[in-house]
Amino acid sequence: MIVFINDFFEITEQNGKVYLKTMKSGFPLKDFDAILRSFPRIKLTNFAVLKNVLSKENATPVEVGQWLPNLEIEVSRDKMYASLFIHETPDFIRRNQQQLHAQINQLLEEKRIVHGILPIHMENIMPGKAILIAQGTPPVKGEDAKITYLEIPERKPVIREDGKADYYDMNFIFEIQEGSWLGEKIPPQSGQEGKNVYGELLPAVSGRDAPLKYDHKSAYECDEDGKVVLRSRISGVLEHLQGQISVNHHLPINGDVGIETGNLQFDGSITIRGTIQNSFSVTAKGDISIEGPEGVSGAKLIKSIDGDIFIRGGIFGLGETRIEAGGSIFVKHVNEANLIAGNEIHIGFYAIGSYLRAHSILVDERKGKIIGGTAIANSQIVTAISGNRLERRTELIIHSINKQEAYAIIQEKAAYLKTLQEEVLSLEEQVGRLSAIANRLNTQQIAAFEQAKLKLKQYNEEALEIDHEIKKMMNDLRNVGKEEIYVTKEANAGTYIQIGKKSSILSKMTKGKFALEFGELNV
User: Fold this and answer.
1) SS3 of 348, please?
2) % of the chain at pLDDT higher than 70
3) Is the pLDDT of residue 220 over 50?
4) Residue 152's closest CA among 245, 291, 235, 266?
């Protein structure tokens, strides 16, 4: 079939291929582009061959391209999109819209494209340009599981302006009754199926599931109204510990800890309505709340292994009292005592002649005082006044973390955690197999079964502890370089300031934020 002919050459089409025969050389290449625009069905495959053919007479036709169909539909690899190409001139498209619509529908039928077909507006079509003609419906991912926990009120002391004795007031112990709602999970949703342009179903993508994180000894799951509800197995005190919710046993002491009670050691939380008498000790795994307004005088040891300690009054340590908390310590004032906290120490009025050690030490920035003694923190120390007019030596120290050493410790802990987790998986598999045949086990096998369960529990607890330590160290590393000592009103002469390895003793009264600037202390 002859497609085009002039004095210089002849273009023909045969079996979907385009041929060029040159009768006369010298036809300008730039003018050939106009011919191609007049025949959108011609697709050149080799420009170099075309240039060579036009440059000399050639009686034998030479293949230079392809003869495209007037309509083409291409489907994407994922079968979600179909594109239409019309290889006709704009004039032809405008004059033959009805015919083209019929051809398009026939081609869609031949290609078995049945879903998501879109309307075609002929007036917007450009020859050879892709037009989206069908679009599949992607599957809709289901909603992820939604988890909600019962919140514990924030433990943040509020100092009242009236100065009354009970101004340092907190709802420290959050008591829970057996069967109380602790949280819930709305399960992940299944999502909606999709379809590709061929009408083939695409499976729905379910939302991601997530476990409720809780202490299995003190809480349990149950199905209620399509939700997984978390409830308390016991009456006690609500706590969030190492990323999981738990209810600790609660021991209320309506009076003092002294001769009548003896020293206390309890695997839970303790509320003491009175005080702890001279030389007596209290140790608890959970929180300790001492409600007596007179505070504590001369107690030997008050220790919370995993929780916080709240003392409504002050501490008169007489140089003997030691307060230790895995979490934070909240107290009105401190005299000659040793306070050590894993998280923060909050002091309402003052600390005199005491040793304080915590991640952050926060003394009321409006009128709080640290006079004498030593305060050591990893991140921040805040007080209104440090030292006194008599230039009593008062040490405010920030121990910066060595990044290199910290990363090495984290890597070591992470490697051990991985080993523990592998052991846990192995033990879970073993316990699961034995559980399925528990009623057929002999005495020796039952003993091995119980031993495996005990070891699994121990490994799980250890893994939780190490994971908590790693997260804490990573959080500490994020604060490296932000350490500061902030004295809002009076940093008296005799105050010793140290951040990292840089230190200075103030020779005159000043105030402000002390930090490392370009590696030097800005004193």
Assistant:
1) coil
2) 95
3) yes
4) 245
Asked whether the beta carbons of 296 and 279 are under 8 A apart, the reply is no
pLDDT band at 166 (very low <50, low <70, confident <90, very high): very low
C-alpha angle 238-358-406 in degrees, rounded to nearest 5: 100
Confidence of residue 164 (pLDDT cuts 50, 70, 90): very low
Amino acid type, 249:
H
Cα(311)–Cα(60) distance, integer angstroms: 105
- In the structure, what pLDDT confidence band is assigned to residue 170 with cuts at 50, 70 and 90? low
CA angle 286, 288, 291 (to 5 degrees): 155
Sheet holding 131-135, edge to edge: 71-75, 81-86, 131-135
Predicted confidence at residue 274, as pLDDT, reads 94
- Given a cut of 60, whether residue 160 has pLDDT beyond it is no
Residue 165's pLDDT is 36
CB-count burial class (<10 Å; 0-12, 13-18, 19+) for 481: exposed
Helix axes 443-478, 403-436, angle to 10 degrees: 150
- Three-class HEC string of 366-412: CCCEEECCEEEEEEEEEEEEECCCCCCCEEEEECCCCHHHHHHHHHH
What are the boundaries of each domain within the chain? 2-67, 71-135, 403-478
If one counts every other C-beta atom within 10 angstroms of the C-beta of residue 48, the result is: 7
User: If DSSP codes are grouped into helix, strand and coil, which group holds residue 98?
Assistant: helix
Residues forming a β-bridge with 288: 270, 309
Candidates 343, 16, 7, 324; CA nearest to 156 is 343
Cα angle 498-501-502, degrees, rounded to a multiple of 5: 55
The structure tokens listed for 350 are 């003052």
Q: What average pLDDT does the segment 169-198 reach?
A: 86
Tell me the two tokens of residue 438: 């528990």
